[in-house]
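Re: your question from the hallway

Yes, I did run it. Sequences:
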Amino acid sequence: MKRKKDLKIEIMAVGSELLTPYFQDTNSLYLTERLNELGMEVSYKTIVGDEWDDLVLCIQQALSRADIIIAIGGLGPTKDDRTREAFASVLERKLIFNQKLLQKIEERFKRRGHSMPSVNKKQAYLIDGAEVLENKNGTAPGLWLDTDSKVILLFPGPPHELKPMFDSSVWPKLQSYRKKHTARRVLKITGLTESKIETLISDLYPQEPHARLTTLAYPGQIEIHLTVFSEKNQERAEESICKLEKKILGRLKENVFSTTGEELEEVVGRLLRLHKKNLAMAESCTGGLLSHRLTNIPGSSDYVLQSMVVYSNEAKTYNLGVSADLIEQHGAVSSQVATAMAAGIREKARSSYGLSTTGIAGPAGGTPEKPVGLVYTAMAWDSGTDVVKNLFLGNRETIKFQSTQKALDMVRRHLLKKPGG
Amino acid sequence: MKRKKDLKIEIMAVGSELLTPYFQDTNSLYLTERLNELGMEVSYKTIVGDEWDDLVLCIQQALSRADIIIAIGGLGPTKDDRTREAFASVLERKLIFNQKLLQKIEERFKRRGHSMPSVNKKQAYLIDGAEVLENKNGTAPGLWLDTDSKVILLFPGPPHELKPMFDSSVWPKLQSYRKKHTARRVLKITGLTESKIETLISDLYPQEPHARLTTLAYPGQIEIHLTVFSEKNQERAEESICKLEKKILGRLKENVFSTTGEELEEVVGRLLRLHKKNLAMAESCTGGLLSHRLTNIPGSSDYVLQSMVVYSNEAKTYNLGVSADLIEQHGAVSSQVATAMAAGIREKARSSYGLSTTGIAGPAGGTPEKPVGLVYTAMAWDSGTDVVKNLFLGNRETIKFQSTQKALDMVRRHLLKKPGG
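Structure:
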């Protein structure tokens, strides 16, 4: 393809299952992320089924509007897999049998102790002029076709076949189409609202014409996806993203808990390990989610000692030694009970930290004084306790999540203050 | 639009954020589900950004290939919202100011104590000939345009605006395009593999030419999505789906845990409530997920007494009375320890049922004798105990999930055998 200034890219996902309510194309998100790293943007995405006329029509229209067409799926051995044939037909090119390709497919079956079913033979046909993209994780080879005016890429649908194929075979080829060098960071933040973050950093945007910031807000977590472009080289891009990251960190400070992709439960785990501390939890309204998140991290058994889900008042008293009088006087959802729970589980488990949650996750159980979303999170350590009153918005699941986020963040901030944190 | 036999439908999602790696159109899944209920299938889906030329081109091509075009997004007040303008331009129809519409938008702002920003005025323009689709949850009205040859529908992007708009305004209008009457069921199954289910029910398909079965397999759960069509009327469709459901239930029996959308944790909760029983859990490898799932159900505090996450051997001994000798002799991952944990938590919590999990969730910690994925799930009740040895495939998260699924299912099957279960 001749080099043009403004390349239009279309991603086309092929498969009738993608036109049902049950399945969704996710491959295009991965491809978009990788293309963006080259400074290339996607202009159109199309989803079409296996029906021949529909497929041919979509290919014709894609060829009329895009310079690079990336089609995904429909390279399998069944009669419904006709992406290869449809592109050949629209491009008026022959499908040519490739003996080497057949051998590779046969060998793949042989290695697993099977002989190749005859239907797979069609996967050894290539569009005239195309190059093979090797598939290390399946039988369907991919295909790269560079015509005078277009680049056409065909990928198999399964993500574990597509991703390595893109990375090993296509990524190097696309370097010559690279428009920019890019560097990326994801800053994960908790403890600040989206609008507060906006206020703190909005004046940084105009200073950075080569940067793009995308802010994604989730309950309890904000992410800033940062991309910096350089037309010169990769080092330049890395250099300027480091500068920009430093500026943003200077404004948002310890509210940023991760710049490397780590989740909050990983950060807390890493800090606990670093400081040779461990943790036990008493959960009421979070119902086990706090413990579930922490134990999703491999190796967490090194620092998670135990967790108790104590829903009933009796369980709070019997297991954690929270006095029945205290519950009677202040209610189970109170700063006093939260603190007693954290201290109680810490003592019981003989852990460095005790964490607790108690609140009203809803949808029922709220009162004007103690509405749905009122959650106390508390922490106990060797020389003190701390408790926070939170008022979360959302449904039962997001209130549970925000409560765990807050509890984890209390431990993180406490550990950060230690020498070496 | 004139009635045709084979209507082609295209769903077009508009918005530059949908061409980034971060956002995905999910509205089309909802619309597809509802259209399928009318016997209408979607042929194409397109995703395009806010750029005028791209948008116009996609609209032109959609009009060339589809009879019904449903566009989503780009109806807001900003200068990037140009779906309305682009359709008007391609259709060569004027945008006509609608005073009534403006009043409604102004009133919406007034009710919230604001005055309408002037940018919102453009939302009061309608494509000539179109009908308004009222938006009860936002300012952007939708639009229905029936030309001689096409039906065009414009929806706002936020799902909480689109869904009620579709249901209240579009669903009744689409009745006249209805090709079939449909009835749907989702059968959720645990305890059988996909291939076993296939063997048990495959002979039922050919008997039912008007039915469509889609099987979705998740770790620990298989779902059969069942749709039955009738060209006559709704009653006929309901009647035949009941018959087919009965046949499938006759084959798969109590392995089907839900036909009404309920999740396994809801079914278990309902059965516990019905039989006035309650539950306590001792979790090792599931790390709180079992408790998290059960407590996601509102009102679960009625039957979930308490849960303990006991990762360390000491915590198992100290909290649950599992003897150190037993752990020494058989290892923490053993049927003996699982059973002792279930009995221990039941005794401690004085609950009707005690449930436990102990296993190797990975990725590390496996040995040839006790590989990653080996999980014991045990249950204790007033007159006995039961334990199952499982070997699950997958990563840490799916092994945790499958373990909770198995544990919940043990309680479910036990409760089903009780009178009235």
